[in-house]
Amino acid sequence: MNILEKIIAFKHIEVAEKSSLVPVKLLEQSIYFQSKVVSMKKYVADPEKTGIIAEFKRKSPSKGAINVTASIEKTSIGYMQAGASALSILTDKEFFGGSIEDLKMARKFNFCPILRKDFIVDEYQILESKSIGADCILLIAAALDPKRLKELAAFAKSLGMEVLMEVHDAQELDESLNEHLDLVGINNRSLKTFEVDLKTSFDLVNSIPNEFVKISESGISKPETLVELKNAGFDGFLIGETFMKSSRPHQAAYNFMNEYRKLLRESKGLVLEK
Ligand SMILES: O=P(O)(O)OC[C@@H](O)[C@@H](O)c1c[nH]c2ccccc12
């Protein structure tokens, strides 16, 4: 079993347990069922913003502990002040050290689009995402057959949420694109082998139809890379570890985004300061 298969098997058990403890009726009483989502599609594609989706990730199966002490309140607010377009919050506890509480806290302190980063295999998890204030869910093509992925995307849309579909090869992209998606992400890290290669993004960007907002995910460590990815056609960039591995992730994000804005101005020939 590869790591993705292991995680997916675990998620099916987790959903069965959770749904018997917290029934759907209870989830639906959350105030967030009445509130409108903040559009990730709109914020990420806004040319006035950086397009960066800044991720809160404490640990990962590939890296182990990344940052176990960072505060969700300080980090999420700091990310947004630094110029992020949106937040991505890991809610998986077992493999990534995240929690639903982290997302609830991020929601409490920020008005911005929030992506629930987890492994979604069931409608229950989408209702739960809505109940904690998430605006967007992630659906992983490598983890779902195309028909099921489409059903789950349609369900999220019926709740007014947005959907980011993640792929890492041309076949997944071909087979799983459907009309219920808002954003398409190219993951530079294989969830099966953990290998990271930015070439994946450059190779696939032109195969994403223009109606979808295009995101490059994982392994981005330099502001220069963002300029290249943007010039290649990406609207958004999902960045976790580069910020989180710092003892002050919000400060790392601030420095990174400042540098990125400077490079962008230079590449447009609009250098105002020395
Ligand atoms: O920390 P990185 O290399 O910047 O990557 C962020 C994000 O792309 C990565 O965490 C991720 C992409 N797809 C996922 C699916 C599940 C869990 C995590 C992920």
UniProtKB/TrEMBL annotation:
<keyword id="KW-0456">Lyase</keyword>
<keyword id="KW-0822">Tryptophan biosynthesis</keyword>
<dbReference type="GO" id="GO:0000162">
    <property type="term" value="P:L-tryptophan biosynthetic process"/>
</dbReference>
<dbReference type="InterPro" id="IPR013798">
    <property type="entry name" value="Indole-3-glycerol_P_synth_dom"/>
</dbReference>
<keyword id="KW-0028">Amino-acid biosynthesis</keyword>
<keyword id="KW-0057">Aromatic amino acid biosynthesis</keyword>
<dbReference type="InterPro" id="IPR001468">
    <property type="entry name" value="Indole-3-GlycerolPSynthase_CS"/>
</dbReference>
<feature type="domain" description="Indole-3-glycerol phosphate synthase">
    <location>
        <begin position="4"/>
        <end position="252"/>
    </location>
</feature>
<dbReference type="InterPro" id="IPR045186">
    <property type="entry name" value="Indole-3-glycerol_P_synth"/>
</dbReference>
<comment type="pathway">
    <text>Amino-acid biosynthesis; L-tryptophan biosynthesis; L-tryptophan from chorismate: step 4/5.</text>
</comment>
<dbReference type="GO" id="GO:0004425">
    <property type="term" value="F:indole-3-glycerol-phosphate synthase activity"/>
</dbReference>
<dbReference type="Pfam" id="PF00218">
    <property type="entry name" value="IGPS"/>
</dbReference>
<dbReference type="GO" id="GO:0004640">
    <property type="term" value="F:phosphoribosylanthranilate isomerase activity"/>
</dbReference>
<dbReference type="InterPro" id="IPR011060">
    <property type="entry name" value="RibuloseP-bd_barrel"/>
</dbReference>
<keyword id="KW-0210">Decarboxylase</keyword>
<dbReference type="InterPro" id="IPR013785">
    <property type="entry name" value="Aldolase_TIM"/>
</dbReference>
<protein>
    <recommendedName>
        <fullName>Indole-3-glycerol phosphate synthase</fullName>
        <ecNumber>4.1.1.48</ecNumber>
    </recommendedName>
</protein>
<comment type="similarity">
    <text>Belongs to the TrpC family.</text>
</comment>
